[in-house]
């Protein structure tokens, strides 16, 4: 089985206060059915595509007709769809991540979607449940805008149980349906003084996948925390059965994913300074700190996931938000080369997914600010019709021939160059990454 190149359409529907952000609308994809032909021309034959709960059922959404039409075009084109039901959302306005009936409500929607689209065999009921819970219930960026660990843990468990019930409902209609479960897999590094905080966050980062894979049994170190947070033990036991174990673990990884914590706050700009309520520290991208190259990047994170779960893996989002399309190509090729390397090591790594084919809007503020800041993907949708970027040529080369060449590719990406480091940053001799 050869390594595949998949594609994805940025499709987040995020509620910020009373404002609903819809990336399918904001990138213009909603009004361009011709985008599917553009994806097909690149050679992409598997596509992560939105069948989103909020868009289909929320007042003000597009309803089912839009989805019916698009899914028929995808089916007719022979594109394998991995359908996403929630993408950083919390459902329509009558529910939310902490609603006790949230899992059953998502399952009812999943059943309707599976009934309408029986040809779909790949499903992602909830994209990045841990990340969504962090941004919504731990950091307060998205609805319901909480900053509470107990709420965060309930949101993680609620979403994971929703995945279980949704896949159970889908498989009644499509018994061979596969769960392609995505998560942003980041690692936290630190100065020795903050090793305790790094250890805590590195344990926390596995919680959603541990729940789904049946690892959170009576012996799991976070089991008591979940119970103390108000998660019913019967729900934890239901997940501990392993019924919701993903068929493919999808790893989403960004240049900003890995983090570094430093107690020496004066070395960093004020926007990077924060803390944990006990101690102040800076929180910066790990690539901005002189750590060993082998400790950060796609290969390091993919190995960790394989060693922990020993199940099939795909890179389900590879995207670099920047103004330089050549850097976007370098980032995608680094993901591709990492996947090829791990396959030689015996890792069952199926695919690399080029994300945000039609670009994204305002992700530099996590969608919290409506500034209309557009980042192109394989196509630049500011042009009419959308124009291919250099990334499109790379996607076509990988999808059709498994390779891409270009005169500018000899130089490493900015995340591998020495000028990326914070100025005047001098690390202690011992910088300890805590294994999680």
Please tell me about this protein's structure.
This protein has helices at residues 23-26, 35-42, 53-57, 63-77, 102-116, 129-138, 149-173, 195-204, 207-212, 223-228, 233-240, 298-309, 325-344, 390-401; strands at residues 4-8, 13-16, 19-22, 46-50, 80-84, 122-124, 178-184, 188-190, 248-253, 259-262, 273-275, 280-285, 313-318, 349-354, 360-361, 374-375, 379-380, 387-388. It has 436 residues and is of the alpha/beta class. Strands 1-4-5-6-7-9-13-14 form an eight-stranded parallel β-barrel, surrounded by five helices. α6 runs antiparallel to α7 (149-173), α7 packs across α11 (233-240) and α13 (325-344) runs parallel beside α14 (390-401).
């Amino acid at each position: 089985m050869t390594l595949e190149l998949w594609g994805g359409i940025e499709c987040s529907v995020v509620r910020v206060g009373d404002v609903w952000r819809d990336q399918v609308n904001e990138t213009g994809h909603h009004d361009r059915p011709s985008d599917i032909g553009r994806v097909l021309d690149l050679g992409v034959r598997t596509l992560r595509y939105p069948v989103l709960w909020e868009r289909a059922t929320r007042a003000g959404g597009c309803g089912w007709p839009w989805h019916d039409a698009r899914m028929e075009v995808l089916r007719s084109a022979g594109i394998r769809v991995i359908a996403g039901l929630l993408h950083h959302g919390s459902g329509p306005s009558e529910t939310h991540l902490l609603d006790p009936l949230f899992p059953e409500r998502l399952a009812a929607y999943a059943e309707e979607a599976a009934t309408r689209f029986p040809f779909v065999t790949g499903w992602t009921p909830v994209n990045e449940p841990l990340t969504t819970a962090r941004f919504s219930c731990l950091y307060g960026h998205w609805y319901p805008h909480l900053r509470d660990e107990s709420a965060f843990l309930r949101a993680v468990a609620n979403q994971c149980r929703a995945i279980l019930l949704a896949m159970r409902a889908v498989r009644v209609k499509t018994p061979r349906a596969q769960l392609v479960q995505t998560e942003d897999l980041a690692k936290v590094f630190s100065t020795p003084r903050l090793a305790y905080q790094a250890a805590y966050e590195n344990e926390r980062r596995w919680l959603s996948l541990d729940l789904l894979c049946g690892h959170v049994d009576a012996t799991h170190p976070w089991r008591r925390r979940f119970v103390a947070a108000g998660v019913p033990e019967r729900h934890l036991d239901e997940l501990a059965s392993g019924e919701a174990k993903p068929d493919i673990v999808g790893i989403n990884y960004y240049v900003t994913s890995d983090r570094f914590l430093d107690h020496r706050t004066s070395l960093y700009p004020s926007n990077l300074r924060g803390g944990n309520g006990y101690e102040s520290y800076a929180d910066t991208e790990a690539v901005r700190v002189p750590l060993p190259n082998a400790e950060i990047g796609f290969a390091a994170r993919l190995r960790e996931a394989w060693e922990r779960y020993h199940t099939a893996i795909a890179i389900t989002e590879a995207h670099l938000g920047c103004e330089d399309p050549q850097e976007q190509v370098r980032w995608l090729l680094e993901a591709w080369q990492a996947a090829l390397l791990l396959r030689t090591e015996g890792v069952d790594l199926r695919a690399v997914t080029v994300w945000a084919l039609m670009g994204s809007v305002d992700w530099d503020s996590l969608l919290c600010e409506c500034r209309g800041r557009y980042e192109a993907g394989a196509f630049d949708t500011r042009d009419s019709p959308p124009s291919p970027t250099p990334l499109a040529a790379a996607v076509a080369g990988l999808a059709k021939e498994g390779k891409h060449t270009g005169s500018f590719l000899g130089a490493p990406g900015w995340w591998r160059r020495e000028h990326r480091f914070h100025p005047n940053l001098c690390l202690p001799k011992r910088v300890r990454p805590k294994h999680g």
